[in-house]
Amino acid sequence: MNTMIKHHPDDNLLTEFSAGTLAFGQSIAVSAHLHYCSRCRARVASLNTLGADLLQHGEPEAVSDSLLASVMDQLDQSPTPAPAPKAPAPAQKPRVLEKILSASGPEKWEFLTPSLHMARLKTGQQEFEVSLHRIKAGGSVAEHDHKGTEITLVLEGSFSDEAGIYNEGDFLLREAGQVHRPLASRDAPCICLSVVAAPVKMTGTFARLLNPFLSFRPQ
């Protein structure tokens, strides 16, 4: 397990991912997080086992909140968690991203600011914009809010904001009203996977003038 990972999808997201009911755009981010995180791979493996047992015993109805909480409590307390698939070599990209890029071709980086470039990913769905963001070493992203849910997964390097420091594999979910200003570490660029349900909303004095021009283009 990568012990640097401090931020994970919550149990509701993992349960929806295991059940196959999580939106495809968000499932990409969860699947990519599992590439790095043995803890969450073990939790998903246990949820898959629970789902298979329920189907085998003829109980396809939704899992109750109390049953789910009981399962998660057992996972937290168990000294020997359910076996998880072996972690891939650290140098590899998450498999889900390799599949997307092999189907659509290499990343096409767009200039946004001197510190920030973006590459939109073609995922065949229209609910979320899925993209890669590259922040240069020591560079920052303008302060912004979110008009909808934003998931960020750190793929390479690290960044910080007002709430903390985020390293490779960390999974962050932001909602409307959660303003932040990401800053990449000084020693290396930071590359993140971003899954957003709506355009960001710039909040800085001058940056907010860009809001009418910010696009939202799921592909």
Automatic annotation (TrEMBL):
Q: Check the record and name the Pfam families matching this protein.
A: Cupin_7
Per the record, the coiled-coil ranges are: none
* Cleaved signal peptide residues: none
Residue ranges of domain ChrR-like cupin in the record: 108-193
| InterPro entries registered for this protein in UniProt | Anti-sigma_ChrR, Anti_sigma_zinc_sf, ChrR-like_cupin_dom, RmlC-like_jellyroll, RmlC_Cupin_sf
Question: What is this protein's name?
Answer: Anti-sigm factor, ChrR
